Amino acid sequence: MNVFEASGLSKRYRGTWALRDCDLAVPAGHVVALIGPNGAGKTTLLRLLAGLTRPTAGSLALLGGGRPGSDAIRNDVAYLDQQVPFYRDLRVRDMLRVAGAMNRQWDEGLAQQRLAAWGIPLRRRAGKLSGGQQALLALTLAIARRPRLLLLDEPMASLDPLARQDATGVLMTSVAEDGLSVVISSHVLTELERVASYLIVLSGGQVQVAAPVDSLLAGHRALIGPAGDADRLAGAVPVIAMSRAGRQAQALARTTTAPSGWAERPVTMEELVLGYLREPAARAVSIAEVAS
Amino acid sequence: MTAVAAVPSGARRMARMTWLRHRWTVAAILGVFGVATLVLLGEGIAMRAWLDANGIAHCLPTNPENRDAACLSAESLVGQFTAGNSGEAAFLAGDTAHLLLAVPAVAALFGGLPWLTREFETGSFRYTWVQGISPRRWSLGTFGSLAVVAAAGAVVLGVVFDWWYRIAQWPVNVTPDMGWDWDVFGLSPIALVGWTVFAFALAMLSAAAIRRTVPAMAAFAASYAGCLFLGQWWLRPRLLSIAPVVARQSFGSFYPSHWNDLWLNGWITAPSGHVVTTAELLKLYAGMGHFSGTQGQWLAAHHYVSWVRYQPQSRLVLFQLAMALVLLVLSASLVLAAVRLLRARS
Amino acid sequence: MSPIAFYLDRGSGVPTYLQLVHQVAYALRLGFLTEGDQLPRIKDVTGSLAVNPDTVVKAYRELELRGIAAGRPGLGTFIVAAPEVAGLREMSALQRRLGSWLADASAAGVDELGMKALFAAALRDFLDNGGTAERADGAA
């Protein structure tokens, strides 16, 4: 089953197209890294998935055909962004009760265990917690709902490295145990490398890359060779990005072998993403495998 | 996912959530109604004690024909108690009633409105929108829970007001219109519940339309005042003139059938069936001569008939129910409009 | 409970799953792990290292392919055989061969860093090609 499917998905805000003609089909159980420059449409896509806003054109189906925001889907989707996701004047334990009342499934034990593990006092008012504690509380409120899809819009920005490690660990355990699907939008590429199994790169409201990380890394190479040979290379293999410096040229190519005269090595996800971001016209969109 | 099956537990969950989230709001609502109730209780007890002390407790509104001399002379005592008011005792009831008409508005202003604007202003609105509960159910559930609390307060206040009003209606020889008047018609328990729910619905719509607290409060206050005016001055008279009873009334009696019937208009017909104008009536009186009875007895003896168009006392409850029904239907449409507004602007 | 716990070298550039595979092989070599020992549970690894569970699954599958470990449904993943450990004599022969290679490299003007780079690249190629010296397309 696909965790979500988009077909021609478009969203316009007062004359600007935040998303344009996006086609996506992401299988369930993935941790999807959503990457792109500011204004590329990441937040818009997440909000559309959360049901906070409706598409201008195209379709979006969640968890096997559900409409985002519909009563059937609401219980299975959790959304977190930088906004205040709780009532500041309530005590933490009352906030848990409110969350339990607002959702059909609620794992009180998990919530209590997480808050205890992170040392978040139950009696304190939510608004009086530190920034990091508030982010952890927000995460707890989301995962204790036992959703099938978790949407995260840069939620870890205010966490210190240890808390971020902890929180990510908890998320990954949920993915392992419950088959939770996660879509996480973040600027910190190195962290996403470890956790993401699916990559979506948005640029200018359009989908540049949408494929599993494994197949992307297996299907791309970093090539190094003579600058004079660069144009021939472009004709021989699909070159995504090329940079020349004096006599040496480096290229990111969608290939598994290097033509003669060129040395190849595997790419990291960071290099791959940066390469595509530098060339907004390049595409690597597939429903199945990319490697040939 | 059957929404129907979840309703009983859903209602309980909503009530729980409303209590957790809006404890102070509930307290404010009950406080407003509570204070008004206590004021009325205090005044009522004091007035009752005064009446007892002066031996005129039996003069409380009953059949005016039962009034004795003690009651009639008590008029002069009115001024002692209500120093500062005019001589008409009914005014005492009137002033307080005017203020009490504002109680639902005050309760809605501080209990029905801020909870919604606060959601917008703090941004927690967006949190609510991505939970398992649907936004419509959340809005209706919270509104419903608060409106039920307010309605309970309104019932208590209305009952106490009824009791108070009977005491405040001074023993005068003016037939009191118990419950029909523009001010008190809205204060019986039934009508008061209607106005209270309406006030909360209007407050919710104001908050949904204008997301900032103070402007929303101003808009609500203005529109509620307008609706109150419309309801009591325009709707009520029209409501009360629906299907009146037309009957003969004997010339000697004060009232058509019950002392608290609402008299709408009356006329006298001559034996020929022709309606007698005031000028003709005066001419008749002038021509009575040495008749040894009252004018009424002369007219009756000469086969003139006094007609009256009125609403029987027994229908008072029905009219209040009708008013409440109108208000509840309006409330429903206001709340649905508010929910639609909330959805559209998420 | 597993006798070992995994760690992650973030800056090494080596894919995560390979790091885990190497750590198991290393532990076997040093005797921290023996036949019958249980490897850490997948959800424990994801929780402590904050990595995608697929990565751990991949590592354990790689170990299965190499015949080192086997998964038992519902119980976990267990070491089934220690890899062939070369004898002491083989080890010293290998080290001598390394020594002559190092002498050759030094004579060619390669410095210490260069030697390490060459070795790392060759090792990476070797492992990427599944432990064989030849590349599939025959390129040098």
Which descriptors would you attach to this protein?
heterotrimer; A: 292 residues; alpha/beta; Rossmann fold; Helicase, Ruva Protein, domain 3; 4-stranded antiparallel sheet; 10 helices; 33% helix; elongated; disordered C terminus; B: 346 residues; mainly alpha; 3-stranded antiparallel sheet; 14 helices; 3 strands; disordered N terminus
Question: What is the topology?
Answer:
The complex is a heterotrimer of chains A (292), B (346) and C (140).
Chain A: E1 2-13, E2 16-27, E3 31-35, H1 42-50, E4 57-62, H2 71-74, E5 77-80, H3 92-102, H4 108-117, H5 131-143, E6 149-153, H6 161-178, E7 181-185, H7 189-195, E8 198-203, E9 206-212, H8 213-219, E10 221-226, H9 230-236, E11 239-245, E12 248-253, E13 263-266, H10 269-278, E14 284-285
Parallel strand pairs in A: 3-7, 3-8, 5-6, 6-7, 9-14
Antiparallel strand pairs in A: 1-2, 1-4, 8-9, 10-12, 10-13, 11-12
Helix pairs in contact in A: 4-5, 5-6
Chain B: H1 3-21, H2 23-53, H3 69-73, H4 75-81, H5 90-100, H6 103-112, H7 114-122, H8 124-129, H9 135-168, H10 189-209, H11 213-240, E1 245-248, E2 262-269, H12 278-286, H13 295-301, E3 305-311, H14 316-344
Antiparallel strand pairs in B: 1-3, 2-3
Chain C: H1 16-30, H2 42-49, H3 53-65, E1 69-72, E2 76-79, H4 88-107, H5 112-128
Antiparallel strand pairs in C: 1-2
Helix pairs in contact in C: 1-3
Number of strand segments of chain A: 14
Largest sheet of chain B: 3 strands, antiparallel
- Give me the oligomer status: heterotrimer
Number of strands of chain B: 3
The largest sheet of chain A is: 7 strands, mixed
Helix/strand order of chain B:
HHHHHHHHHHHEEHHEH
